[in-house]
Amino acid sequence: MQKDISPHIFRAYDIRGIYQDDISPELFYKIGQAAGTYVKKVINGKNLTVGDDIRQSSPSLVYSFISGVSSTGVEVQYTGTSAFGQTLFAGWKSNHALIAFVTASHLPPEWNGIKFYYGDGVGLPVEALEKIRDFTLDDEFETADWRTVGAVKTIDVQTKYKDFFLSKFNFKKPIKVAVDCGGASMTLSAPDVFKSLGLEFVPVFCDPDPLFSKRPSEPKAKNLSVLVNTVQDQQCDFGVAFDGDGDRAVIVDNTGRVLPADQTGIILSKFGIADKNRTVIVNVEVSKAVREQLEPLGFNVKQIRVGHTFLTLEGKKENACIGIESSGHIILPEYFLFDDAIVVPLKMAEVLQDNEKTLSELVDELPMYPTAREEIDCPDDIKTNVIETLKSELTREFDNTSVLDGIRVTLDDGWVLIRQSNTGPIIRLTAEADDESSLTRLTTQFMQRLQKVIDEKQKQNL
Q1: Low-confidence ranges of the chain (pLDDT < 70)
Q2: pLDDT score at 460
Q3: Are 420 and 388 in contact (CB under 8 A)?
Q4: Same domain, 30 and 132
Q5: Structural domain ending residue among the three candidates 364, 391, 420
Q6: 132 with 249, same domain?
Q7: Through-space distance between the first and last CA atoms of the chain, rounded to whole angstroms
Q8: 2 — phi, psi (to 5°)?
Q9: How many other C-beta atoms can be found within 10 angstroms of the C-beta atom of residue 154?
Q10: CA–CA dist 397, 262 (Å, integer)
Q11: Domain residues for 342?
Q12: CATH number, domain at 378?
């Protein structure tokens, strides 16, 4: 096992680290060898599609990865620097055994990594990623001689990708949309798709900017002031902001309100899905308003763990009509299983075309509860221990608890979820309550409990 490779870069549903500190082109050659070995030995495949996001370090990593894959005898289809959805679309349409995308999603520009998917767009489960991890750490690779080295070809998927959406959407009513790409990978797909569909496109940070100098790649509300002002000033029907690779979308209504994924998911479900006798997948962080709003309409709401991998896995297993993550990942399997964020604003535009009400009027009809989301720094080497300790304490103390993902405590006036991040050295606390005073009390109470356990574990490590 290679001691110089940090095991912490191998996370629950991807590989991530800081360029040249945690990850490097040399390491990505090994990861490519491991991915090729996985394709041949585990899933008995022969081909792989890969693309990379717009980050400055992505080309050096993806070319190393491609070399590693090719060295095992697996054929590689390279989509170039692209949006996440373009690469997943290419692999899906090509029916390839595995799809990979070099990205660190919403993290700052010094970070990078890689995600893996099966050919249908379903994310690799933990045990599959652990297999790739073990191949990497143990130098256990398939090798090919000069006769059987895997062929590599570069393709341009842009036209077929755009034509797919032209076949799925037909806008006859003028819809004005402000689109904030943040200078990231969606600059390579969204402008072309929106314009081709006849939507009135108002660009915000839609020029490529690999350093994310205009807007952070994380589309949190605090980072979206330019988009909000544009929606208001240009009198747009709504706005959308994408994250770094393009697998998350945040909607802004026509008044400039930044909508949580819960509200977006409810509106898309109520007004965009005809068959209401279907399953809706939600993670453990999603508001109880989703269940309250959708189950009376006939939807079956199923709760799952946090993570885009689990969203796609359960979406396929349950034949779901929609999957909603509180972080902004939304899948609409009527198009495809993977979480290409471009379908969210396109579906929202379709909803507004078929509805006489504005988006803000639809939002105003939804009863939403006050929520809080907090993050506490916690070293990677103790965060699992912290969560296990809290599980033991809180399940003894409170009757209504769930350990599906972290620990969730449900009380008479609200609920609290504490879970470790799969992408960084932090623990997140999410709370929802019937009113603001209850929310403040719950958040304060459980934040203090969490910090106490972190402090105790850190002292034990000294």
Answers
A1: 1-3, 423, 462
A2: 87
A3: no
A4: yes
A5: 364
A6: no
A7: 27
A8: -80, 110
A9: 10
A10: 29
A11: 159-364
A12: 3.30.310.50
CB burial readout 90-103, b (16+ within 10 A) else e: bbbebebbbbbbbb
pLDDT (0 to 100) of residue 11 = 85
**Beta-carbon contacts of residue 205 (< 8 Å; ≥ 6 apart):** 180, 181, 182, 183, 187, 214, 215, 226
Beta bridge pairs of residue 251: 240
As a three-state string, the secondary structure of the chain is CCCCCCHHHECCCCEEEEECCCECHHHHHHHHHHHHHHHHHHCCCCEEEEEECCCCCHHHHHHHHHHHHHHCCCEEEEEEECCHHHHHHHHHHCCCCEEEEECCCCCCCCEEEEEEEECCCCECCHHHHHHHHHHHHHCCCCCCCCCCCCCEEECCCHHHHHHHHHHHCCCCCCCEEEEECCCCHHHHCHHHHHHHCCCEEEEECCCCCCCCCCCCCCCCHHHCHHHHHHHHHCCCCEEEEECCCCCCEEEEECCCCECCHHHHHHHHHHHHCCCCCCEEEEECCCCHHHHHHHHHHCCEEEEECCCHHHHHHHHHHCCCCEEECCCCCEECCCCCCCCCCCHHHHHHHHHHHCCCCCHHHHHHCCCCCCEEEEEEECCHHHHHHHHHHHHHHHHHHCCCEECCCCEEEEECCEEEEEEECCCCCEEEEEEEECCHHHHHHHHHHHHHHHHHHHHHHHHHHC
Tell me, what's the pLDDT at 423? 64
- For the chain, the domain total comes to 3
pLDDT, tens only, 235-262:
999 999 999 999 999 999 999 999 999 9
What pLDDT score was predicted for residue 3?
46
* pLDDT given at position 391: 96
Tell me which of 136, 156, 176 is where a domain ends.
Answer: 156
Whole-structure pTM value? 0.91
127 and 207, same domain (yes or no)? no
